[in-house]
Amino acid sequence: MTKNLHVELIDHIGLDLWRAAKSWKQLLTDQMVAAGYEWYAGAPGMLTMHIGPNGISQSKLQDRAQLSKQAVQQLLDKLEQDGVIERVPHPTDKRAKLVRFTKVGLSALLLANQIKQQIEQDYREALGEDQFATLQAALKKLNAMNDA
Q: What pTM was estimated for this model as a whole?
């Protein structure tokens, strides 16, 4: 039999960062869905943030998304069914596939960029230019430290 321990949840910066990131993602997702891109709300939509306007090899996409080959394959299948992406032969690697946006996917990418810029502008207005710049620099420094 184990003894009951009294353990409290602590307030920490990780929770604040997670909540802020979750809120940012929800703002973006809600607006994309409202604009008619329902697929953006699910896991396949989250994969699109790694693709970019010029496409990406499927293996590099797996690395960036930090998902298994099978998971990426399933998500890409769904995005292809929805007309968001297409898989074409890679121009420099005959063994690889290039994942790229269709016209539907590119229009979603353009809208997502506009929404992201608006969210950022709202944050600038809420924090003020100096505080926003400080926040942005601190996040970049933390990310660089974590990438090292």
A: 0.83
